Amino acid sequence: MNESLADRGSFLLLLLCVFGYVRQRCAMGDAYAAHYSTRGHGPSPPASPPPEGRYIATSCTKDQWARDDPAFLVLLSAALAVSSILFAVVLGLSLWGFVKFFLWVVFIDCIGVGVVVATLLWFVSNRWLRRVDDQDVEWGYCFDVHLNAFFPLLTMLHVVMPLCFSVMINYPNLLARFFGNTIWFVAIGYYVYITFLGYTALPILKNTHVFLYPFTFLFIFYVATVTAGWNISQTAMNFYHFRAETHNT
């Protein structure tokens, strides 16, 4: 029994090391380069240094910014697969349940939500935030921002939360509720902040501080859920298990 627990602990520690490396790799500037194309031949807006973070403009050829490190997509795909395996172990999913969970994470949580968010922010950016009329933000750039912001969210919700669930979250008390909801607050907050960095890196946009406005509503919702006695992590884990195992019998 002790050897089994030790083996499981070593396996989980290995997963943490892998995700730590991937997270550090993605935090480096060479993991990301914006890709948006300029339209027209008007004067370009003055260049400004990029904010601190992962969004660093590198070089522009043929009027297009290109992601110079496609390995990020490979790392993200591997992270989705490994985190789904971890969830399958923690939730005790069957093989078919794991497949359903993995497909849901890829096509709904990552791609589906990304399409909606990218389309919304693409419209907002081009409609109200452009400095000039002859250049616009490409939809592909907006989806790129989502993918970069999605990674830390994935790490918090699909690695930290399942690892800590049975030890610190799955209890009917204030401390467990506080810790479980804090994970979600940090994960979504990180998503908002990385999104802000992505759009601030574009010199053709103005007033990008509006992308930080969701923090106010996020904090209010966080305090309200902890006070009201709702453990979001418990609800999420139950939902994850339900959507993976329902109709399997």
TrEMBL record:
| Keyword Isomerase included in the entry's annotation | no
Report which residue ranges the record marks as coiled coil. Answer: none
Give the signal peptide range: 1-24
Where does this protein reside within or beyond the cell?
Membrane
| Segments traversing the membrane | 71-94, 101-124, 149-171, 183-205, 211-233
Q: Which domain of life is it from?
A: Eukaryota
Keyword check for Signal: yes
A Gene Ontology CC term for this entry? Golgi membrane
Q: In which broad location class does this protein mainly occur, judging by the first location in its UniProt entry?
A: membrane
Cite the InterPro entries for this sequence: UNC-50
- Recorded topology in the membrane: Multi-pass membrane protein
Give the keywords, sorted. Membrane, Signal, Transmembrane, Transmembrane helix
Q: Which family does it belong to?
A: Belongs to the unc-50 family.
Against PANTHER family, the record matches this protein to: PROTEIN UNC-50 HOMOLOG
This chain belongs to the protein called Unc-50-like protein
Q: What is the lineage of its organism?
A: Eukaryota, Metazoa, Ecdysozoa, Nematoda, Chromadorea
